[in-house]
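step=encode ok
step=design start
structure_in=
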C-alpha cells in the first residue's frame, strides 16, 4: 500500500530532479560547460559580501585581509562561524604538503563527476561548436587568478582522480602566486610536487593520470568533505585542516582572532606569575579586579596592533 510518506518522498525527489535538470540546461557564459554561474548569479548568491568583485562575479577579498588571515588558526575561525550558525565550514582528513606554510586565498571551485558517455559527448560537442577546447582539468586551471586557491571536488577519487602532477602544480603556483590547492581526490608526481613552494591538501597520491571523469562545473558550489564551498570563500588551512569562510564574515573573524590571541597572551602572562590556579584565570577570571585588568590589557594591545598595521600600510 502506498503511504503518504511514499507520496511525499516521490514529490520531493521529482522536484529535486527537475531543479537539477533546469540548472544543467540553463545557458551559461562558458556555454560548453554543463554548469557554471553567471556573474549576476554569483553576485546574487554572495550578495552579503560588500567587497569588490572579479570579472567572473566572485567576491574579491582585499589583499590586506588575506595577509592578516595568514595568522589565523582553526580554533580562531571556529569561534565566529559557530556563533553565526555556519556549522559545516571545516574539512580535514587530508594529506598536507608544506604544513608549515599557511594556506590562504580566495576559492576558485571546480567540480568533476564520474564519466557518463552520453552526457560527456553532448558537452564536448557544445564546447567544440563554440571554439572551446576539450573540457579537461586544464580548462579550469587556465582560468585561475593571483590569490586563488584551486578547490576541486573529485568525489574522493584516487585512481585517475589526479587533478595535477608536478608540471600543472607548478603552473598553478605561478598563476596564483602560490595560492594553493585543496582537492577531494588525488595528485600525482609527489616527489616533484614536494619541491614546489605551494601548500596543498589532498586525499591520496596515485601514478595514474586524470581520467574516467568529466568536468561538470566551474565556480559553482562544490562539496569538500562535509562542506559546501562557494566561489570566493576565504580559504584558510593549517596543520589541522581547512576552513572555508564566507566573505561577509572575514572581517569579523579576523577582528575576533585578535581578541582571542590577546586573551591567550594575557592568560599565559598570569600563569607565568604562578600566583593563581588555572580556574581563577582561564577561561574567564572570576575576580572583578582581574576582569578589569584584562579589559585594560585588551584595549591597550588592540591599539598597539592597529598602530602597527597602519604603519605597515603606510610603509608599503
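sequence_out=
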Amino acid at each position: 500500500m502506498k503511504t503518504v510518506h511514499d507520496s511525499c518522498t516521490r514529490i520531493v525527489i521529482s522536484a529535486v530532479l527537475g531543479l537539477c535538470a533546469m540548472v544543467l540546461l540553463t545557458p551559461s557564459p562558458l556555454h560548453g560547460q554543463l554548469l557554471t554561474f553567471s556573474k549576476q548569479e554569483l553576485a546574487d548568491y554572495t550578495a552579503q559580501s560588500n567587497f569588490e568583485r572579479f570579472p567572473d562575479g566572485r567576491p574579491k577579498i582585499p589583499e590586506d585581509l588575506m595577509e592578516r588571515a595568514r595568522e589565523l588558526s582553526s580554533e580562531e575561525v571556529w569561534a565566529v562561524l559557530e556563533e553565526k550558525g555556519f556549522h559545516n565550514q571545516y574539512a580535514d582528513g587530508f594529506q598536507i604538503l608544506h604544513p608549515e606554510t599557511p594556506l590562504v586565498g580566495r576559492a576558485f571551485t571546480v567540480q568533476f563527476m564520474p564519466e557518463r558517455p552520453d552526457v560527456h559527448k553532448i558537452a564536448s560537442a557544445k564546447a567544440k561548436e563554440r571554439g572551446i577546447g576539450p573540457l579537461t582539468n586544464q580548462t579550469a586551471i587556465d582560468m585561475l587568478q593571483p590569490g586563488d586557491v584551486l578547490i576541486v571536488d573529485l568525489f574522493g577519487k584516487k585512481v585517475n582522480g589526479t587533478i595535477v602532477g608536478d608540471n600543472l602544480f607548478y603552473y598553478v603556483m605561478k598563476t596564483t602566486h602560490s595560492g594553493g590547492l585543496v582537492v577531494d581526490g588525488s595528485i600525482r608526481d609527489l616527489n616533484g610536487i614536494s619541491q614546489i613552494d605551494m601548500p596543498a591538501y589532498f586525499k591520496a597520491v596515485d601514478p595514474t593520470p586524470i581520467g574516467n571523469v568529466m568536468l561538470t562545473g566551474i565556480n559553482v558550489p562544490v562539496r569538500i568533505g562535509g562542506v559546501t564551498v562557494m566561489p570566493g570563500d576565504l580559504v584558510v588551512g593549517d596543520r589541522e585542516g581547512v576552513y572555508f569562510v564566507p566573505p561577509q564574515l572575514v572581517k569579523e573573524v579576523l577582528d575576533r582572532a585578535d581578541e582571542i590571541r590577546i586573551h591567550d597572551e594575557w592568560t599565559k602572562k598570569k600563569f607565568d606569575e604562578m600566583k593563581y590556579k588555572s580556574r581563577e584565570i582561564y577561561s574567564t577570571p572570576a575576580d572583578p579586579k582581574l576582569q578589569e585588568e584584562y579589559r585594560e590589557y585588551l584595549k591597550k594591545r588592540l591599539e598597539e596592533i592597529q598602530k602597527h598595521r597602519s604603519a605597515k600600510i603606510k610603509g608599503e
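step=design ok
step=annotate ok -> Residues 1-33 have pLDDT under 50 and may be disordered.
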